[in-house]
Protein backbone atom coordinates (compact mmCIF):
# COMPACT_ATOMS: atom_id res chain seq x y z
CA UNK A 1 0.00 0.00 0.00
CA UNK A 2 1.34 3.43 -0.95
CA UNK A 3 1.97 6.14 1.65
CA UNK A 4 0.83 8.91 -0.68
CA UNK A 5 -2.58 9.35 0.97
CA UNK A 6 -0.92 10.09 4.30
CA UNK A 7 1.74 12.36 2.86
CA UNK A 8 -0.85 14.29 0.88
CA UNK A 9 -3.74 14.53 3.32
CA UNK A 10 -2.45 13.96 6.87
CA UNK A 11 -1.07 16.85 8.88
CA UNK A 12 2.65 17.52 9.09
CA UNK A 13 2.35 16.96 12.86
CA UNK A 14 2.65 13.19 12.39
CA UNK A 15 5.96 11.93 13.74
CA UNK A 16 6.45 8.15 14.16
CA UNK A 17 5.53 7.47 10.54
CA UNK A 18 8.52 9.55 9.49
CA UNK A 19 10.90 7.21 11.29
CA UNK A 20 9.05 4.01 10.35
CA UNK A 21 7.70 4.62 6.81
CA UNK A 22 5.78 1.38 6.31
CA UNK A 23 2.04 0.79 6.17
CA UNK A 24 1.14 -1.68 8.90
CA UNK A 25 -1.85 -4.00 8.86
CA UNK A 26 -1.56 -6.68 11.58
CA UNK A 27 0.18 -7.22 14.88
CA UNK A 28 0.72 -10.12 17.27
CA UNK A 29 2.87 -10.43 20.34
CA UNK A 30 6.18 -8.70 19.64
CA UNK A 31 5.65 -8.40 15.88
CA UNK A 32 4.13 -5.76 13.62
CA UNK A 33 3.23 -6.86 10.10
CA UNK A 34 3.40 -4.46 7.18
CA UNK A 35 0.84 -4.54 4.41
CA UNK A 36 3.32 -6.38 2.18
CA UNK A 37 3.72 -9.13 4.77
CA UNK A 38 7.08 -8.10 6.23
CA UNK A 39 7.34 -8.77 9.97
CA UNK A 40 8.99 -6.17 12.21
CA UNK A 41 10.13 -6.72 15.78
CA UNK A 42 8.43 -3.96 17.75
CA UNK A 43 10.58 -2.44 20.48
CA UNK A 44 8.48 0.72 20.54
CA UNK A 45 5.25 -0.94 21.69
CA UNK A 46 2.92 1.99 21.24
CA UNK A 47 5.35 4.17 23.22
CA UNK A 48 4.71 1.93 26.21
CA UNK A 49 0.98 1.39 25.72
CA UNK A 50 1.38 -2.31 24.88
CA UNK A 51 3.25 -3.85 27.80
CA UNK A 52 1.51 -7.20 27.26
CA UNK A 53 2.24 -7.32 23.53
CA UNK A 54 -0.02 -6.85 20.54
CA UNK A 55 -3.39 -8.60 20.75
CA UNK A 56 -2.67 -10.57 23.90
CA UNK A 57 -4.88 -13.68 23.68
CA UNK A 58 -5.88 -13.76 27.35
CA UNK A 59 -7.00 -10.14 27.36
CA UNK A 60 -8.58 -10.33 23.90
CA UNK A 61 -10.81 -13.25 24.92
CA UNK A 62 -12.38 -11.22 27.73
CA UNK A 63 -12.85 -8.18 25.49
CA UNK A 64 -14.59 -10.24 22.82
CA UNK A 65 -16.82 -11.94 25.37
CA UNK A 66 -17.84 -8.58 26.79
CA UNK A 67 -18.71 -7.15 23.36
CA UNK A 68 -20.56 -10.29 22.30
CA UNK A 69 -23.02 -9.81 25.18
CA UNK A 70 -23.85 -6.21 24.21
CA UNK A 71 -22.66 -4.94 27.57
CA UNK A 72 -22.41 -1.19 28.04
CA UNK A 73 -19.64 0.54 26.07
CA UNK A 74 -20.15 4.19 27.04
CA UNK A 75 -21.14 5.06 30.55
CA UNK A 76 -19.64 8.49 31.30
CA UNK A 77 -18.88 8.19 35.03
CA UNK A 78 -22.02 6.26 35.95
CA UNK A 79 -21.88 3.11 38.07
CA UNK A 80 -21.20 0.07 35.90
CA UNK A 81 -20.33 -3.55 36.52
CA UNK A 82 -17.16 -3.19 34.41
CA UNK A 83 -15.90 -0.30 36.52
CA UNK A 84 -16.73 -2.05 39.77
CA UNK A 85 -14.87 -5.18 38.76
CA UNK A 86 -11.82 -3.22 37.64
CA UNK A 87 -11.60 -1.21 40.88
CA UNK A 88 -12.11 -4.31 43.01
CA UNK A 89 -9.50 -6.35 41.14
CA UNK A 90 -6.97 -3.49 41.16
CA UNK A 91 -7.48 -2.99 44.87
CA UNK A 92 -7.31 -6.70 45.73
CA UNK A 93 -4.30 -7.58 43.56
CA UNK A 94 -2.21 -4.42 43.81
CA UNK A 95 -3.16 -1.96 46.53
CA UNK A 96 -4.05 -4.16 49.49
CA UNK A 97 -0.98 -6.43 49.24
CA UNK A 98 1.22 -3.32 49.20
CA UNK A 99 -0.58 -1.60 52.05
CA UNK A 100 -1.65 1.26 49.78
CA UNK A 101 -4.84 3.18 50.49
CA UNK A 102 -5.79 5.22 47.44
CA UNK A 103 -8.92 6.62 45.88
CA UNK A 104 -9.48 6.21 42.14
CA UNK A 105 -10.22 9.05 39.74
CA UNK A 106 -10.96 8.23 36.11
CA UNK A 107 -10.37 11.15 33.79
CA UNK A 108 -9.98 11.69 30.07
CA UNK A 109 -8.33 8.70 28.38
CA UNK A 110 -4.87 10.15 27.81
CA UNK A 111 -1.90 10.51 30.10
CA UNK A 112 -1.72 14.25 29.65
CA UNK A 113 -5.31 14.62 30.86
CA UNK A 114 -4.47 12.69 34.00
CA UNK A 115 -1.48 14.98 34.56
CA UNK A 116 -3.78 18.00 34.22
CA UNK A 117 -6.10 16.49 36.82
CA UNK A 118 -3.19 15.86 39.18
CA UNK A 119 -2.03 19.47 38.83
CA UNK A 120 -5.53 20.82 39.52
CA UNK A 121 -5.92 18.62 42.57
CA UNK A 122 -2.51 19.47 44.05
CA UNK A 123 -2.93 23.20 43.53
CA UNK A 124 -6.44 23.31 44.91
CA UNK A 125 -5.57 21.18 47.91
CA UNK A 126 -2.49 23.19 48.91
CA UNK A 127 -3.72 26.58 47.67
CA UNK A 128 -0.30 27.03 46.07
CA UNK A 129 0.44 27.36 42.36
CA UNK A 130 4.11 26.55 41.82
CA UNK A 131 5.19 23.00 40.95
CA UNK A 132 8.67 21.47 40.89
CA UNK A 133 9.51 19.46 37.78
CA UNK A 134 12.82 18.08 36.54
CA UNK A 135 15.06 18.75 33.57
CA UNK A 136 14.65 15.90 31.11
CA UNK A 137 11.11 15.18 32.24
CA UNK A 138 8.22 14.65 29.83
CA UNK A 139 4.65 14.81 31.09
CA UNK A 140 2.53 15.58 28.03
CA UNK A 141 1.72 18.37 25.60
CA UNK A 142 -1.53 19.92 26.81
CA UNK A 143 -1.01 23.28 28.46
CA UNK A 144 -0.37 22.33 32.08
CA UNK A 145 1.52 19.16 31.18
CA UNK A 146 3.63 21.06 28.68
CA UNK A 147 4.62 23.55 31.35
CA UNK A 148 6.10 20.58 33.26
CA UNK A 149 7.92 19.24 30.19
CA UNK A 150 11.46 20.51 29.73
CA UNK A 151 12.10 19.86 26.03
CA UNK A 152 12.39 23.23 24.29
CA UNK A 153 11.27 21.73 20.97
CA UNK A 154 7.93 20.84 22.56
CA UNK A 155 7.63 24.05 24.58
CA UNK A 156 8.24 26.48 21.72
CA UNK A 157 4.84 25.89 20.10
CA UNK A 158 2.76 26.55 23.23
CA UNK A 159 1.68 29.97 21.98
CA UNK A 160 1.48 31.37 25.50
CA UNK A 161 3.78 31.65 28.48
CA UNK A 162 4.33 28.46 30.47
CA UNK A 163 4.38 29.52 34.08
CA UNK A 164 4.19 28.28 37.69
CA UNK A 165 6.86 25.59 37.27
CA UNK A 166 10.42 25.51 38.64
CA UNK A 167 12.83 23.04 37.05
CA UNK A 168 15.58 21.24 38.94
CA UNK A 169 18.28 18.93 37.54
CA UNK A 170 17.35 15.24 37.72
CA UNK A 171 19.67 13.00 39.69
CA UNK A 172 21.83 11.94 36.74
CA UNK A 173 21.49 15.05 34.57
CA UNK A 174 24.07 17.34 36.15
CA UNK A 175 27.26 15.70 37.39
CA UNK A 176 28.46 17.12 40.65
CA UNK A 177 25.33 19.16 41.32
CA UNK A 178 23.25 18.17 44.34
CA UNK A 179 19.72 19.05 43.23
CA UNK A 180 18.16 17.92 46.50
CA UNK A 181 20.46 20.14 48.58
CA UNK A 182 19.56 23.02 46.27
CA UNK A 183 15.86 22.19 46.64
CA UNK A 184 16.09 22.31 50.41
CA UNK A 185 18.02 25.56 50.24
CA UNK A 186 15.39 27.36 48.18
CA UNK A 187 12.65 26.07 50.48
CA UNK A 188 14.40 27.30 53.61
CA UNK A 189 15.87 30.56 52.30
CA UNK A 190 13.37 33.41 52.64
CA UNK A 191 15.27 35.23 49.88
CA UNK A 192 15.31 32.38 47.33
CA UNK A 193 12.66 34.14 45.28
CA UNK A 194 11.00 30.80 44.48
CA UNK A 195 7.47 30.19 45.65
CA UNK A 196 6.92 27.15 47.86
CA UNK A 197 5.48 24.53 45.52
CA UNK A 198 2.20 22.71 45.72
CA UNK A 199 3.83 19.54 44.45
CA UNK A 200 6.86 17.82 43.03
CA UNK A 201 6.25 15.69 39.94
CA UNK A 202 8.63 13.23 38.31
CA UNK A 203 9.09 10.02 36.39
CA UNK A 204 11.27 7.69 38.45
CA UNK A 205 12.83 6.74 35.11
CA UNK A 206 12.81 9.55 32.56
CA UNK A 207 11.83 7.86 29.32
CA UNK A 208 11.79 10.55 26.63
CA UNK A 209 14.54 12.35 28.56
CA UNK A 210 17.06 9.61 27.74
CA UNK A 211 16.34 6.69 30.13
CA UNK A 212 17.61 8.45 33.24
CA UNK A 213 17.09 6.22 36.28
CA UNK A 214 16.64 7.77 39.72
CA UNK A 215 18.21 5.74 42.51
CA UNK A 216 16.03 4.47 45.37
CA UNK A 217 18.07 6.57 47.80
CA UNK A 218 17.52 9.77 45.81
CA UNK A 219 13.79 9.12 45.50
CA UNK A 220 13.45 8.44 49.23
CA UNK A 221 15.38 11.60 50.08
CA UNK A 222 13.18 13.66 47.75
CA UNK A 223 10.05 12.21 49.33
CA UNK A 224 11.44 13.09 52.75
CA UNK A 225 11.92 16.72 51.74
CA UNK A 226 8.34 16.84 50.47
CA UNK A 227 6.99 15.44 53.74
CA UNK A 228 9.07 17.87 55.79
CA UNK A 229 7.73 20.88 53.92
CA UNK A 230 4.14 19.80 53.25
CA UNK A 231 4.63 19.37 49.49
CA UNK A 232 2.70 16.74 47.57
CA UNK A 233 4.70 14.05 45.76
CA UNK A 234 3.30 13.09 42.34
CA UNK A 235 4.66 9.98 40.62
CA UNK A 236 4.18 10.00 36.84
CA UNK A 237 3.99 6.25 36.20
CA UNK A 238 2.43 6.63 32.77
CA UNK A 239 5.25 4.92 30.85
CA UNK A 240 7.51 3.28 33.44
CA UNK A 241 4.54 1.97 35.44
CA UNK A 242 2.18 -0.96 34.87
CA UNK A 243 4.95 -3.50 35.42
CA UNK A 244 7.64 -2.13 33.14
CA UNK A 245 10.07 -1.41 35.97
CA UNK A 246 9.87 -4.98 37.30
CA UNK A 247 7.17 -4.06 39.81
CA UNK A 248 3.73 -2.78 38.92
CA UNK A 249 4.58 0.65 40.39
CA UNK A 250 8.01 2.03 39.58
CA UNK A 251 8.38 3.71 42.99
CA UNK A 252 8.12 0.46 44.96
CA UNK A 253 11.88 -0.09 44.83
CA UNK A 254 12.37 3.12 46.83
CA UNK A 255 9.95 2.12 49.60
CA UNK A 256 7.96 5.34 49.23
CA UNK A 257 4.24 6.10 48.96
CA UNK A 258 3.45 8.99 46.62
CA UNK A 259 0.54 11.27 47.44
CA UNK A 260 -0.70 11.04 43.84
CA UNK A 261 0.07 8.41 41.19
CA UNK A 262 -0.68 9.02 37.50
CA UNK A 263 -1.32 5.98 35.29
CA UNK A 264 -2.21 5.55 31.62
CA UNK A 265 -0.66 3.87 28.53
CA UNK A 266 -0.65 0.13 29.42
CA UNK A 267 -3.31 0.49 32.11
CA UNK A 268 -5.97 -1.02 29.84
CA UNK A 269 -3.68 -3.92 28.94
CA UNK A 270 -4.59 -3.82 25.26
CA UNK A 271 -3.69 -0.39 23.95
CA UNK A 272 -7.17 0.94 24.64
CA UNK A 273 -7.29 4.57 25.83
CA UNK A 274 -7.46 4.83 29.61
CA UNK A 275 -5.98 7.04 32.32
CA UNK A 276 -6.53 7.51 36.02
CA UNK A 277 -5.22 9.00 39.24
CA UNK A 278 -4.64 7.23 42.50
CA UNK A 279 -4.48 9.59 45.48
CA UNK A 280 -4.60 9.54 49.24
CA UNK A 281 -8.20 9.80 50.52
CA UNK A 282 -7.59 13.06 52.38
CA UNK A 283 -6.80 14.76 49.06
CA UNK A 284 -10.26 14.07 47.67
CA UNK A 285 -11.57 17.64 47.82
CA UNK A 286 -13.12 17.54 44.34
CA UNK A 287 -16.64 18.84 43.88
CA UNK A 288 -18.86 16.86 41.45
CA UNK A 289 -17.86 17.41 37.84
CA UNK A 290 -14.92 19.73 38.56
CA UNK A 291 -12.74 17.62 36.29
CA UNK A 292 -14.64 15.50 33.81
CA UNK A 293 -14.75 14.38 30.20
CA UNK A 294 -16.97 12.25 27.98
CA UNK A 295 -14.52 9.34 27.93
CA UNK A 296 -13.57 9.26 31.61
CA UNK A 297 -13.71 5.55 32.17
CA UNK A 298 -13.95 3.69 28.84
CA UNK A 299 -15.86 0.52 29.68
CA UNK A 300 -13.92 -1.76 27.34
CA UNK A 301 -10.67 -0.47 28.88
CA UNK A 302 -11.95 -1.51 32.31
CA UNK A 303 -12.41 -5.05 31.00
CA UNK A 304 -8.97 -5.09 29.41
CA UNK A 305 -7.38 -3.60 32.52
CA UNK A 306 -8.93 -6.21 34.79
CA UNK A 307 -7.84 -9.00 32.44
CA UNK A 308 -4.30 -7.59 32.34
CA UNK A 309 -4.06 -7.73 36.14
CA UNK A 310 -5.25 -11.34 36.11
CA UNK A 311 -2.77 -12.17 33.35
CA UNK A 312 0.06 -10.70 35.43
CA UNK A 313 -0.86 -12.85 38.41
CA UNK A 314 -1.31 -16.07 36.47
CA UNK A 315 1.97 -15.73 34.56
CA UNK A 316 4.10 -14.40 37.45
CA UNK A 317 5.05 -11.58 35.10
CA UNK A 318 7.03 -9.48 37.58
CA UNK A 319 9.56 -12.29 38.07
CA UNK A 320 9.84 -12.81 34.32
CA UNK A 321 10.48 -9.09 33.76
CA UNK A 322 13.24 -9.02 36.35
CA UNK A 323 14.88 -12.07 34.80
CA UNK A 324 14.76 -10.57 31.29
CA UNK A 325 15.96 -7.24 32.64
CA UNK A 326 19.10 -8.86 34.03
CA UNK A 327 19.65 -10.61 30.69
CA UNK A 328 19.30 -7.36 28.70
CA UNK A 329 21.59 -5.57 31.14
CA UNK A 330 24.33 -8.17 30.69
CA UNK A 331 23.99 -8.18 26.91
CA UNK A 332 24.14 -4.40 26.59
CA UNK A 333 27.17 -4.11 28.85
CA UNK A 334 29.10 -7.09 27.52
CA UNK A 335 28.14 -7.23 23.84
CA UNK A 336 27.56 -3.56 23.05
CA UNK A 337 29.39 -1.36 25.54
CA UNK A 338 32.35 -3.61 26.32
CA UNK A 339 35.31 -1.38 27.04
CA UNK A 340 34.05 1.53 24.93
CA UNK A 341 33.86 4.49 27.31
CA UNK A 342 31.89 6.47 24.75
CA UNK A 343 28.83 4.23 25.21
CA UNK A 344 26.68 4.54 28.32
CA UNK A 345 24.03 1.99 29.26
CA UNK A 346 21.08 2.94 31.46
CA UNK A 347 17.85 1.23 32.26
CA UNK A 348 15.51 -0.62 34.56
CA UNK A 349 13.15 -3.52 34.01
CA UNK A 350 12.15 -3.53 30.36
CA UNK A 351 13.19 0.03 29.50
CA UNK A 352 16.79 0.50 28.40
CA UNK A 353 18.85 3.17 26.71
CA UNK A 354 22.12 3.08 24.78
CA UNK A 355 23.61 6.57 25.07
CA UNK A 356 25.86 7.52 22.14
CA UNK A 357 26.14 11.22 22.95
CA UNK A 358 29.91 10.96 23.58
CA UNK A 359 30.48 10.25 19.88
CA UNK A 360 31.26 13.22 17.62
CA UNK A 361 28.51 12.32 15.16
CA UNK A 362 25.36 13.94 16.59
CA UNK A 363 23.20 11.88 14.21
CA UNK A 364 24.75 8.54 15.07
CA UNK A 365 21.83 7.19 17.14
CA UNK A 366 19.33 8.21 14.46
CA UNK A 367 21.39 6.53 11.74
CA UNK A 368 21.56 3.33 13.77
CA UNK A 369 17.80 3.39 14.44
CA UNK A 370 17.15 3.89 10.72
CA UNK A 371 19.35 0.93 9.82
CA UNK A 372 17.68 -1.19 12.50
CA UNK A 373 14.38 -0.45 10.80
CA UNK A 374 15.82 -1.60 7.48
CA UNK A 375 16.60 -4.87 9.29
CA UNK A 376 12.99 -4.97 10.50
CA UNK A 377 13.50 -3.86 14.08
CA UNK A 378 11.63 -0.81 15.40
CA UNK A 379 13.49 1.28 17.98
CA UNK A 380 13.29 5.02 18.62
CA UNK A 381 15.76 7.67 19.74
CA UNK A 382 15.23 9.80 22.85
CA UNK A 383 17.13 12.14 25.12
CA UNK A 384 18.88 15.40 24.38
CA UNK A 385 19.20 15.76 20.60
CA UNK A 386 17.86 12.19 20.23
CA UNK A 387 21.24 10.62 20.95
CA UNK A 388 19.99 7.68 23.03
CA UNK A 389 18.65 4.48 21.43
CA UNK A 390 15.64 3.38 23.44
CA UNK A 391 14.68 -0.28 23.82
CA UNK A 392 11.08 -0.83 24.92
CA UNK A 393 10.14 -4.47 24.31
CA UNK A 394 6.88 -5.94 25.53
CA UNK A 395 7.09 -7.51 28.97
CA UNK A 396 6.07 -10.77 27.32
CA UNK A 397 8.84 -10.79 24.67
CA UNK A 398 9.91 -14.30 23.66
CA UNK A 399 13.57 -15.16 24.38
CA UNK A 400 14.44 -15.95 20.76
CA UNK A 401 12.90 -12.69 19.56
CA UNK A 402 14.71 -10.76 22.29
CA UNK A 403 18.01 -12.36 21.22
CA UNK A 404 17.39 -11.50 17.58
CA UNK A 405 16.54 -7.87 18.37
CA UNK A 406 19.55 -7.35 20.63
CA UNK A 407 21.81 -8.91 18.01
CA UNK A 408 20.48 -6.52 15.36
CA UNK A 409 21.17 -3.56 17.64
CA UNK A 410 24.67 -4.81 18.46
CA UNK A 411 25.63 -5.52 14.86
CA UNK A 412 24.24 -2.21 13.62
CA UNK A 413 26.11 -0.22 16.27
CA UNK A 414 29.30 -2.08 15.37
CA UNK A 415 28.81 -1.31 11.71
CA UNK A 416 28.59 2.39 12.47
CA UNK A 417 31.31 2.62 15.11
CA UNK A 418 33.81 0.10 13.78
CA UNK A 419 33.78 -1.66 17.16
CA UNK A 420 34.32 -5.40 16.76
CA UNK A 421 31.97 -7.87 18.39
CA UNK A 422 33.19 -9.90 21.33
CA UNK A 423 31.75 -13.14 20.03
CA UNK A 424 33.23 -15.15 22.90
CA UNK A 425 31.15 -13.34 25.49
CA UNK A 426 28.23 -15.30 26.84
CA UNK A 427 25.17 -13.57 28.29
CA UNK A 428 23.36 -16.74 29.23
Automatic annotation (TrEMBL):
Gene Ontology molecular-function annotations: diaminobutyrate-2-oxoglutarate transaminase activity
Family, similarity comment: Belongs to the class-III pyridoxal-phosphate-dependent aminotransferase family.
Origin species: Chitinophaga nivalis
Catalytic activity: L-2,4-diaminobutanoate + 2-oxoglutarate = L-aspartate 4-semialdehyde + L-glutamate
CDD domains documented for this protein: OAT_like
Function: Catalyzes reversively the conversion of L-aspartate beta-semialdehyde (ASA) to L-2,4-diaminobutyrate (DABA) by transamination with L-glutamate.
InterPro entries, per the entry: Aminotrans_3 (IPR005814), Aminotrans_3_PPA_site (IPR049704), Dat (IPR004637), Ectoine_EctB (IPR012773), PyrdxlP-dep_Trfase (IPR015424), PyrdxlP-dep_Trfase_major (IPR015421), PyrdxlP-dep_Trfase_small (IPR015422)
Protein name per UniProt: Diaminobutyrate--2-oxoglutarate transaminase
Protein EC: 2.6.1.76
Keyword line: Aminotransferase, Pyridoxal phosphate, Transferase
Keyword Nucleus: no
Cofactors, names only: pyridoxal 5'-phosphate
